[in-house]
Amino acid sequence: MNIRKLTGLMVLVIGCVPAFSQTVTTISPSMSASGGISIDKIGNVLVADYGDALANANGTAIRKISKEGILSVYATGFQGASGNTFAPDGNLYQCNIAGNSISRVSPSVSVTTFVSTGLSSPVGIISDTSGNLFVANCGNNTIQKVTRSGV
To answer: What is the extent of the structural domain holding 92?
Structure first.
């Protein structure tokens, strides 16, 4: 990067960067639809099965794609599984758009309801370093904070 002062003006000259080659790789067979995607500590890809289509969020499972590319069912019992995230406590938190709720999936793959009130079609979720969740609700265009204790 070169910076030159020309008659009272600062001019910034940035060299051109050549385009990089990109490769897109399909790592799983086709699924009916997909929701959130998270990666666990050992590199497995977890994909929420949203359902048949945007108008029909009836997916009930999270699928796992192993590092070797093997597709299997990771957990079931969801209602339109959309966004998901891992929190510092090691649990996976799964939005259920059709159930207006968030499920907690423990490391031993035990599924429990974490939040079942106050949400409106949750689709996106992320955790901060303290374990608080931030949830995007497409039913009322809000972002809500959910504490570690589920409040």
So the answer is: 31-146
